[in-house]
Amino acid sequence: MEEDDGAEEQQRFSYRQRLKAAVHYTVGCLCEEVALDKEIQFSKQAIAAISEVTFRQCENFAKDLEMFARHAKRSTINTEDVKLLARRSNSLLKYITEKNEEIAQFNLERKAKKKKKSEDENKNSTEQAEAGVVESEN
Amino acid sequence: MADSGSPDSEPTTRTLLRRVLDTADPSTPRRPRSARAGAQRALLETPSSRRLSSQTKTTARRRSQRIRSIGKLAHVQASGYLEEQTPRTLLKNILLTAPESSIVMPKSVVKPGPAPQVVQPSSRESSRGSLELQLPELEPPTTLAPGLLAPGRRKQRLRLSVFQEGMDKGLPLSQESRGNADASSLTSSLNLTFATPLQPQSVQRPGLARRPPTRRAVDVGAFLQDLRDTSLALAPPDTVLEDTQPFSQPLVGRSPSVHHSLPCPSHSGAEDAERAVSHRTRSTGPRLQNNSPGKPAQLLAGKAEERTEKSLSMSKVKEAARARGSARAQEPEGHTQVTEAEGSQGAIETKEPEGSSGDCPTSSRRVSPELASSTPEFLQAKRIQGLEPAPPPSTAVLPSEPLEPLSARLPPRARTPGPKACQNPYKTGLSHYAKLFSFYAKMPMEKKALEMVEKCLDKYFQHLCDDLEMFAAHAGRKTVRPEDLELLMRRQGLVTDQVSLHVLVERHLPLEYRQLLIPCAFSGNSVFPAQ
């Protein structure tokens, strides 16, 4: 009841905190890389700010993605939704499109493989069946 | 008083009523005793009424009245008392008692006396009553009437005759004959009542008779002429806003020319007209030059037309804009609803604080183009009927288009429309918003700053329009629909989980747009506007 709700809230809150911490850690790692690359130092506050902003933007993205999917009368978020989300930044859009194509290709290849496999299996099974029949006949 | 037994001394309505009031308790049937006492007197006064009412349909009414009365004893008396109190019952009684001179013997001639006077208060009822009560009895009235009537015979007779004559001729009677004559005519001439139950009423009070409202048809020709004359004569004028500015931009100045000429014809739509015109002047494109005469006509023709035209014109403009390939043509629809509403309300000032400067200009701009587009596009709308009617809000997006026509219309007079027309569509709209911006800045602005503002606005609108296009494409459509606009507004944060689009529409848009945007189901489950 209320206690449960309170406990749940606590749980959610702690979950959020953990997520934030994870984001913060990742942002810190990335900033370190960039710092090494550009030979610029990042202050802790800057990293914290960036991670906070990232976290909030992720929330926004999630809501937007859901809206886009609903707008297209779907219940699943699609790569189309993601592309629509990233349309503002050209480079990002390009990157995402490329990745999307890669994944699509990969999926196609996989499907082709699977098809082949299943065909072979079918052939084998039919051959076996025929063999069995033949054997039985014999 | 009533006890005198000669209530007929002055059988006028007034006296009758006075007697009733004097004798009987004024309001409540809850005082049976006093009512009784009064009722007794009243009974004396109108024995006929009771008798009559008992026999006629009025008994039903009396019974209903009886129900009201509390005391048992008071029932009969109270009923009579109650009856008398209401003009309806009075009239009924009178009608019953009063004889028809035409039908009854000379005795009955006297009857019309009190009857007409009492009938006066509610001639309608009497007419109704006369219709109802005609059939029942002719006799009782004759017997009872004499008691009521007396001296005014001759007078009434004369009046009655006069009135009847008037009725026959169909002329309104003079005041003299009005009072008595009406009732007398009603009671005396059943035929008349049958034929014209309501005439007496109108005759009675000609001043109150409902006359069809005299509407002067707008003289479109004269208006157009005025429009042309004034627009020709006027130099680059100032809009209302411009007046407050120390510096005015020549590009935008054209609007008021038409603006000034318009106020006279359109009273109701003055606001819209002015705004529309002011913006229209700016936005007239070359192709709309022909339509400009049509604009004022449209304004005057009626707002309803405007609205429907707007929806059509918006779509047309949109299509036209697309055809022209001007990205600007696709105004951010997202703002249309919010801003349009605000702009259309004329609350341009209030808009500023509400949204960013970019929003406000877009809003006011959008409102004006929308209004403007309606009329300029009206003629086009007919041609382009085949286009998908994008919903009004989305179609309202067209601002730069409507802005073009106006500006192009005026330039031809002063300058060549060629090169300007190309630039104007893009610039005039933005310059308008830039002017608004500088107005609300409340301090002088450099030209460069204004140009930067224009640039920013340009990019902003481009972005919004692109977004709208993408949203439509995302949903597999080629037309922008309100859903796309809602999505855009959601992304902007104008529409949230707490504030829905309908709330914004209700808050900011005028009633006509609201009717178009918010579908509501009427009886019979017919939804308007039909989706």
Tell me about this structure.
The complex is a heterodimer of chains A (138) and B (531). Chain A is built from four helices and no strands. Chain A is mostly helical. In chain A, α1 crosses α2 and α2 packs across α3. In chain A, 4% of the residues are buried. Chain B has 531 residues and is an all-alpha fold. The N terminus of chain B is likely disordered. Classes of the chains: A mainly alpha (138), B mainly alpha (531). At the A-B interface, α2 and α3 of A face α28 and α29 of B.
Short description:
Chain B: Residues 424-521 form the CENP-T/Histone H4 histone fold domain. The complex is a heterodimer of chains A (138) and B (531). Chain A has helices at 2-38, 44-71, 79-85, 90-137.
Oligomer: heterodimer
- From the spread of the alpha carbons, the general shape of chain B counts as elongated
**Largest interface: chains, residues each:** A-B, 10 and 10 residues
Distance between the termini of chain B: 72 Å
What Rg of chain B is obtained from the alpha carbons, in whole angstroms?
Answer: 36 Å
Class by SSE composition of chain A: mainly alpha
Number of helices of chain B: 31
- Contiguous uncertain segments of 5+ residues of chain A: none
Helical amount of chain A: over 70%
